[in-house]
Amino acid sequence: MTLRDVAAYAGVSTTTVSYVLNNNPLVKPATRELVLRAIKDLNYHPNTNARNLKSNEARMIGYAWHVMEDPIRRNAILDRFLYDMAQAAESYGYHVLTFTQPAQLGVKPYDELISTNRVDGFILTDTTFNDRRIKHLMDKKVPFAAWGHSNPDWNYPYVDVDGRRGMELAVEHLVLRGHKRIAFLGWPDGTVVGDARKNGYYSAMRAAGIEPPPDWIGYTPNIVEYAYRAAQQVLSANPRPTAVVCVNDVMALGVRSYLESVNLQIGEDVAVIGYDDTPIADLLGLTSIRQPVNEVAARVIDLLMAEIQGGTITKRQIVLEPSLIVRMSSRGRRSA
Question: pTM value?
Answer without folding.
Answer: 0.80
